[in-house]
Amino acid sequence: MLVPEEPARPLSLRERRRAAATREILDAAMAHISEHGPAALSLRAVARDLGMTVQALYHYFPNRDALVTAVMTEAYESLADAVATAAATRPAGPATPGLVAVAEGYRDWALAHPELFRLLYGTPIRHYAAPADGPTTEAVRRMSAVFERELFADLSAARLAAADTPPLSPALSAYLGHIAPEALGGLPPAASTLLLSAWGHLHGLVVLEVFGHLGFMGEHQAEVFRLSMRNLLADVRRRVGAEPGAI
């Protein structure tokens, strides 16, 4: 017999006020990054933007690293939402493969939020390290799962294990086999290398564009990106090939 869940306890007035203040601080921090870049983020700068004292800000975030982690988590969640939405809303049919759709969702978010993208993937903030297995890691895994699903859609474990990749050294194969299953979706080593290579190709093109290194392509950048993603997908599918033992 299922036991009905108890309804969530309503937040107290004090809790609602704290949540609203925290939300305002995070919005101000993200706006500050968008205007001045990640390196300019500090508790003092955010407090100044909000007309607060730094001491008052400490009631919500005990130090800069806690604020940076909260902002990065929001940014990763927003990016993961954009990728998931791109997958869910892509046109039916083969004209836009799932991988192409999610890659373009990733690119569109990065171009719309260049400073937040730089916060996530640009020059690291000095003396900051994200908590191991913290909220930022969880958001990245959610996004990675979408890419993995679209890259290897409808492929069996046997096909993924038999992927045509350069031979892996025993040390690398053992390392990939012992990575936490959720980190690479529990993929066999050969498929893990394909996923990492595909991610490097996709992400590298977006980084080049966000940092202004593909400006010479002008209005053709979107088309070049789409062609690259189609070629990437075709190469992965060619390497996976037919089911082992199939005639």
- Please identify the structural class as seen in this structure: mainly alpha
Which percent band covers the strand fraction? under 5%
Radius of gyration over alpha carbons? 22 Å
The largest sheet, given as strand count, sense and whether it forms a barrel, is: none
Number of strands: 0
Kindly report the name of the CATH homologous superfamily of the largest domain. Tetracycline Repressor, domain 2
Helix fraction by DSSP (H/I, runs of at least 4): 55-70%
**N-to-C order of helices and strands:** HHHHHHHHHHH
End-to-end CA span: 50 Å
Total count of domains = 2
Question: Which consecutive residue ranges, at least 5 long each, have pLDDT under 50?
Answer: none
Question: Could you explain how this protein is built, in words?
Answer:
This protein has eleven helices and no strands. The chain is mainly α. The protein has two domains: 14-62, Arc Repressor Mutant, subunit A (Orthogonal Bundle); 65-240, Tetracycline Repressor, domain 2, CATH 1.10.357. Helix 1 (13-36) packs across helix 2 (43-50). The N and C termini lie far apart (50 Å).
